[in-house]
Amino acid sequence: MKISRRTTAIAIAGATAFALVATGCSSAAPGATDPNEKITLTVATFNDFGYSPELLAEYTELHPNVTVKQTKAKTSDDARANYFTKLGAGSGLADVEAVEIDWFAELLQYSDKLTDLSSDEVEGRWLDWKANAATDADGRLIAYGTDIGPQAICYRSDLFAAAGLPTDRAEVATLLTGDWDHYFDVGQDFVAKSDAAWYDSVGSIMQGKLNQEVETLESSDGEIIAGDNPVVSEAYNDILAQSPELSAHLGQWSEDWYAAFSNGAYATMLCPSWMLGIIEGEAPEVKGWDIADVYPNGGGNWGGSYLTVPAQGAHADAAKEFAAWLTAPEQQLKAFVKTGNFPSQVALQDSTELLAVTRPFFNDAPVGELMAGRAAAVPADAPFKGVKYFPVMTALQNALTRVDVEKSQDAKGSWAQFLKDIDALK
Amino acid sequence: MTATSTATAPRTANRRTRRRANAAATNKPSFLGYAFLVVVILGSLFPLYWSFLIGSGDASTLRNLDVNWLPGGNLLANFASVLENEAVGFWRALGNSLIVSTVVSVSVVLFSTLAGYAFAKLKFRGSRPLLIFVIATMAVPTQLGIVPLFIAMSQWFHLGGNILAVILPALVSAFGVFWMTQYLSQALPDELIEAARVDGANMIQTFWYIALPAARPAAAMLGLFIFIGTWTNFFWPFIILDSNNPTLPVALSLLQSNFFVDYSKVLAGVLLSTIPLLILFVVAGKQLVSGIMQGAVKG
Amino acid sequence: MTQSLAHDVDVTRTIPEERAIRRIAFGHRLSHWDVKLSPYLYISPFFILFAITGLFPLVYTGVVSLYDWHIIGGQGDFVGLKNFEWVLGQEKFWVALRNSFSIFILSAVPQIIIALVIAAILDQNLKAKTFWRMGVLVPYVVAPVAVALIFSNMFGDQYGLINNLLGRIGLDPVGWHSQVIPSHLAIATMVNFRWTGYNALIFLAAMQAIPRDYYEAASIDGASRIRQFFSITIPSLRPTLIFVIITSTIGGLQIFDEPRMYDSTGQGGASAQWMTITMYIYNQGFGVAGGGQFGHAAAAAWLLFLVIVIVGLINLVATRAIASNESRSAK
Question: Do C158 and A259 touch (CB under 8 A)?
Answer without folding.
Answer: yes
